[in-house]
Design a protein that fits this description.
Layout lengths: L7 H9 L6 H13 L10 H6 L2 H14 L4 E5 L5 H8 L4 E5 L6 H10 L6 E4 L16 E4 L11 H11 L4 E3 L2 E10 L15 E3 L14 H9 L2 E7 L12 E3 L5 E11 L2 E4 L12 E3 L8 E5 L4 E5 L1
Parallel strand pairs: 1-2, 1-4, 2-3, 4-5
Antiparallel strand pairs: 6-8, 6-10, 7-14, 9-13, 10-11, 10-12, 13-14
């Protein structure tokens, strides 16, 4: 197995030499990277990508100060502990941090210790589905970053729905997400682009961050974003355990590809899962429907979303 060791000194160097949109953002992410312990487990390889995703960092930097100050906070899926640290640094009174991956627990503990927040964080090794109400009594805000390659892959809606049932008055941060699709001409894409095979159906778990040689050209960004059609809009304020959601159907022309992405929101703050650079650790799916398909059907089950050409 390939060595998954990632030296955080190198990560800190990358953070220091990345073009950031804000000096405060650069200082915050660099100091956090230096404080994190070395990551040696393959199941945690996503963490450096998250830290170096300055779009994501800026999004949480903007929403946390407005939502967690002087509040008791529940975090679902703390991972290496970065978001819990950020909550404390932004004035949270206390954070109850949940993590069900046993490999992440020692890393989170070290992260809290090295950032000097251990006394203000209670780390529980469990899923939010196993929570009891007395364990999170008094929590006023629920923070989370449960979105993997697709917004359903880590059972985000299921986990947050259960937390909502225990904390009906809590503020969820972020508030929700929107799944979007744009139909664009295949001719607009660079010649090296290879959309996913024209199977008659595909699972959205195929979402992945585009390689540098397959980034959507920046000149197409606004076109794709402006053509975006909302497929599903999930607001965690009303979050319930997912059943199969109502299908949405759009009709492609023969030369079009479907660009699918998701957009996380909290108030006026929005974070798209992809952009005109390679910084995002999320991505988008580009799918070429079969020749002759007249409709694309979107079907959401509790665990994934499928696209089917008919």
């Amino acid at each position: 197995m390939e060595d998954a060791r990632i030296k955080l000194e190198q990560l800190a160097y990358l953070a220091s030499n990345t073009t950031w949109t804000d000096a405060l953002e650069k200082a915050w992410i660099t100091s956090l990277a230096k404080a994190l312990p070395n990551i040696t487990d393959r199941s945690l390889e996503y963490i450096p990508a998250m830290l170096l995703d300055h779009h994501r960092t800026k999004f949480y930097q903007e929403i946390l100060p407005k939502t967690v100050h002087n509040k008791k906070v529940l975090e679902i899926g703390t991972g290496a502990g970065a978001l819990a640290v950020a909550a404390i640094k932004n004035g949270a009174k206390h954070v109850i941090a949940l993590e069900c991956n046993p490999n992440a627990i020692p890393i989170a503990k070290q992260t809290f210790q090295r950032n000097g927040v251990s006394e203000k964080v209670t780390l529980l090794e469990k899923s939010s589905l196993d929570l009891k109400q007395e364990e999170i009594e008094g929590c006023e805000v629920v923070i989370h970053d449960l979105f993997g390659r697709d917004p359903f892959g880590e059972l985000a809606c299921e986990l947050l729905a259960h937390a909502r049932s225990l904390l009906p008055r809590a503020r969820f941060v972020p508030e929700g997400f929107i799944l979007k699709v744009s139909m664009i001409s295949r001719l607009l894409l660079p010649s090296q682009f290879h959309p996913l095979p024209n199977n008659d159906q595909i699972d959205l778990s195929a979402l992945e961050r585009a390689r540098k040689d397959q980034l959507i050209p920046a000149v197409l960004t606004d076109t794709i974003w402006n053509k975006g059609i909302d497929i599903f809009n999930i607001h965690f304020k009303d979050c319930k355990p997912l059943q199969t959601l109502e299908e949405s159907i759009i009709g492609p022309s023969t030369d079009q590809v479907a660009v699918v992405w998701f957009e996380i929101f909290d108030g006026d703050n929005h974070l798209k899962s992809w952009g005109p650079d390679s910084a995002n650790h999320w991505g988008q799916l580009i799918w070429l429907p079969p020749t002759g398909a007249r409709q694309i059907k979107f079907t959401q089950s509790p665990t994934c979303l499928r696209l089917k050409a008919i």
